Amino acid sequence: MRSQRRRPNILLVVGGQIKEVKATRQCEFYDFSTDLWYVIPSELPTRRCGASVDVLNGNLYAINGFNGSLCFRTVDSCDPQVNRWIPCPSMEARRSTLGVCVLNNKIYAVGGFNGSKWRKSAEVFDQVSGKWSFIPSKSKKRANVGVVTVNDYVFGVGSYGGASLQ
Hints:
It is built from no helices and 13 strands. By secondary structure, the protein is mainly β. The protein has a single domain (10-157), classed as Neuraminidase (6 Propeller). Strand 8 and strand 9 form a beta hairpin. The radius of gyration is 16 Å and the shape is globular. The protein starts with 9 loop residues before the first strand and ends in a 9-residue tail after the last strand. This is Ring canal kelch-like protein. Keywords: Kelch repeat, Repeat. One of its GO terms (biological process) is protein ubiquitination.
């Protein structure tokens, strides 16, 4: 018998681009049970849009992004129990609009845009060592790629490579 999927409690939005400003520090969430949006008091340490987020061992990670003038390689983590963002080890490469996922207690980051070039490189974060390291590059440059883990496989879906929509 197939188990029924549990409905999520909240939808979390971290940073992003708001019409009046290029990037924001604001975090908010949508509560499915109340059908309302709420602003989270703990803002990101830096303004960022084009970042990617994922959860590893209960902590939320905001990875890289663009602050309105510069793509960066910074990573911040938020422990929901203390509701505070802390800096984490930076990635090896600057990139925004990257795809991320978690597999085997590691965060994988692929593709992105560094402000002038689309990236085909990929990195992995090992929480135990606290380090990011490069892994073999993809065959094509990709940004805005959706990345997900299913049954111990990582899938990338859709993307933009700079010359045409792919």
